[in-house]
């Protein structure tokens, strides 16, 4: 018989319930992960005590979701989320129950959950595992199966379709055939799920060992067309040269190949070539080209990230990588060219961009070629040691200085600062206040105030 190790603090926590005549169980992911040999410190509890009864048992209780029977108990330095046994009413919004009814039966409570592997429970007093839905059998067969009628489960909450995909990626499990069929027939309901919930599931896939497993299930069940239609359009869009995969499968393979510890780099890898679909052209000579696909990929990815409510910081990281993924370093680059690359990409993003390049290579060739990147990194390191100015903020002169020299504030000043940075990127020794001041005034005089003096008058015969 399977058992679950009960720590001293959990046993003491459970004693409060049993001494008052209630039962208390550990439920959900903690039980599943323990049985799979995965570590977890996140425990959810279910009880027959109602929220107000739980609040009377403990001194510090936060009513985090009391409408649905959930409170958070602060106990001996830990926080435990406790939910009263319940059954759910109808789901008018395909996401949340319109009402809940508190019950006294653990079996009734577990019946409302999504998948059998998530409907396991542990008696918090003795560690005994309780399995009403053959979840342990599904763990052994590495299968994700909905509880009861899968259509009903997904009609109740459409997000469960993405959760199934995410668990496939996280656990590297397959999806039981009837569950998969119901997902495909109801995937259109994902259109009504909030962007924030979808984003969370996608990012959990990015953090999984093999995101490809979840993304391919999304594609096979038509969920990808609803959630990421821009990515789905790459299906069967063939590429040129050494590419062995179409645009969709290439993005999925690149995503898998990027570091698991960098989910935003994985997201950039997944989306980095989606612009190839609208930019694909075949020349008169029969050559397939994707002119400036990285720019279109950036625009399309930007639309996706805004739609899914990613933060500004997350969008900037991903879009910067996509925009710059087509760099082509060669040993004949000047130091000025290297400095411009650093300025364009940003020092903090270079390691991520190199990770994206390696993932792209792996998806194309099945292997990586690091020699060129190692040489490029050495050049970057040398330039960083020698250079003091890589952005306008690093210049020895600033906007206030230019204003005191007689240059008005506004767009003109920005143009001049950019010109000064170009000068310094070419020659770092020019980054001195007097030199830059002289250059700025000369540029302002010749290019702004009197641009016509730079052109010789046209003679007529």
Description:
The protein has a seven-stranded mixed sheet with strand order 3-4-5-2-1-8-9. Strands 6-7 form a two-stranded antiparallel ribbon. It has a two-stranded parallel sheet with strand order 10-11. The termini are far apart. The protein is of the alpha+beta class and 461 residues long. The chain is built from 23 helices and 13 strands. A hairpin with a 5-residue loop joins β12 and β13. The chain is elongated. The chain has four domains: 8-141, Beta Polymerase, domain 2; 146-227, Orthogonal Bundle (Hydrophobic Seed Protein); 240-386, Orthogonal Bundle (Hypothetical protein af1432), CATH 1.10.3210; 392-453. It has helices at 8-19, 29-35, 51-57, 106-111, 135-140, 150-156, 159-171, 177-186, 195-206, 211-220, 223-227, 229-232, 247-257, 263-271, 276-279, 293-307, 312-324, 335-345, 350-365, 371-386, 399-404, 411-426, 433-449, and strands spanning 24-27, 44-47, 61-65, 70-75, 78-84, 86-88, 100-102, 121-123, 129-130, 143-144, 174-175, 280-282, 288-290.
């Amino acid at each position: 018989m399977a058992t679950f190790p009960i720590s001293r603090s959990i046993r003491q926590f459970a004693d409060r319930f049993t001494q008052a005549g209630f039962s208390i169980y550990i439920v959900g992911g903690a039980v599943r992960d323990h049985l799979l040999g995965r570590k977890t410190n996140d425990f959810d509890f279910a009880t027959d005590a109602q929220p107000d009864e739980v609040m009377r048992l403990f001194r510090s209780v936060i009513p985090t979701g009391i409408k649905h029977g959930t409170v958070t108990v602060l106990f001996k330095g830990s926080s435990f989320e406790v939910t009263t046994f319940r059954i759910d009413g109808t789901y008018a919004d395909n996401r949340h129950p319109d009402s809940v009814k508190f019950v006294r039966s653990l079996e009734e409570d577990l019946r409302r959950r999504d998948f059998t592997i998530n409907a396991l429970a542990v008696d918090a007093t003795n560690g005994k595992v309780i399995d009403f839905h053959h979840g342990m059998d599904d763990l052994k067969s590495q299968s994700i199966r909905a509880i009861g009628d899968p259509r009903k489960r997904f009609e109740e909450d459409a997000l469960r379709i993405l959760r199934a995909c995410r668990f496939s990626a996280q656990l590297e499990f397959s999806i039981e055939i009837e569950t998969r069929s119901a997902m495909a027939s109801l995937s259109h309901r994902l259109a009504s799920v909030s962007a924030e919930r979808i984003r969370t599931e996608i990012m959990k896939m990015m953090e999984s060992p093999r995101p490809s497993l979840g993304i391919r299930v999304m594609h096979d069940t038509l969920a990808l067309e609803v959630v990421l239609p821009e990515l789905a359009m790459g299906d069967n869009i063939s590429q040129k040269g050494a590419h062995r995969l179409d645009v969709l499968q290439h993005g999925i393979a690149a995503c898998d190949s990027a570091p698991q510890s960098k989910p935003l780099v994985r997201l950039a890898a997944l989306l980095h070539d989606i612009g190839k679909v609208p930019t694909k052209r075949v020349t008169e000579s029969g050559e397939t080209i994707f002119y400036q696909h990285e720019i279109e990929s950036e625009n399309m990815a930007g639309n996706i990230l805004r739609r899914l409510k990613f933060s500004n910081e997350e969008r900037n990281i991903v879009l910067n990588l996509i925009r710059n993924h087509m760099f082509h370093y060669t040993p004949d680059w000047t130091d000025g060219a290297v400095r411009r690359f650093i300025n364009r990409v940003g020092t903090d993003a270079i390691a991520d961009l190199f990770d994206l390049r390696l993932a792209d290579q792996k998806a194309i060739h099945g292997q990586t070629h690091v020699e060129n990147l190692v040489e490029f990194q050495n050049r970057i390191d040398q330039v960083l040691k020698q250079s003091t100015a890589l952005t306008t903020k690093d210049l020895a002169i600033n906007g206030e200085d230019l204003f005191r020299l007689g240059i008005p504030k506004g767009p003109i000043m920005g143009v001049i600062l950019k010109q000064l940075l170009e000068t310094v990127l070419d020659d770092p020794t020019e980054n001195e206040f007097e030199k830059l001041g002289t250059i700025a005034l000369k540029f302002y005089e010749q290019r702004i105030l009197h641009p016509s003096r730079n052109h010789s008058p046209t003679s007529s015969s």
